[in-house]
Amino acid sequence: MRAIIIDDERLARTELKKLLQDFPEVEVIDEAANAQEGIQKIELLRPDLIFLDIQMPGKTGFDMLSELEKSPQVIFTTAYDEYALKAFEVNALDYLLKPIEPKRLADAIHKLQLTSVPKEQNLVGENFNQSMLNEHDQVFVKDGERCWFVKLTEIRLFESVGNYAKVFFAGNKPLILKSLNALEERLDEKMFFRANRKHIVNLRMIDKIEPYFNGGLLLELKGGEKIEVSRRQTVKFKEMMSL
Length: 243
Fold this sequence. Notes:
By secondary structure, this protein is of the alpha/beta class. It has 7 helices and 15 strands.
């Protein structure tokens, strides 16, 4: 996978190249210090991937992408988190905040590898949004005209509403067109637990656990929600949480 790093900070480019030495599948073939230089090198070298800063002198990273006839895969690298929604809209593969953590970089490279698998071998489906989510991921949530880019760790509960699911985070409860079963397939069971037919809870958001009717449990979440764990799932819950 041939890559170009586009960032106006020389130290940031150097640090990223150093981190990428742990990923031999990514070959850094060049670098650029601004958008215009980046466009020239992309058109000349035709890389598979670019690591792109957003705030640069002159044109922004978004400006640069709008001028490309054909864009390679894009992983944004920036010190600012307010551009995450816009990054999603331009189909960026990932959005890494500086200083870049090795684990987040590894996750981004993993996503890159999945998108590079031929369709007949790609077990997660044609679109990457069928892949497993982990605790370092952020997810795009849209409800009508409102949009959020939410860290998975900040979601405390998913609640089934017919073919939709209600997502609980901070003071928000938007509806998304996803069934609870489809969500369960993508969520890490070490972090999210199917409490009953209607609810998946974030284990890290449990504030209190009490015995409940008919051998079940009652979970109180940090947002104040009280969720019943079915008798069947209580057995599994106790096995998971015991020493």
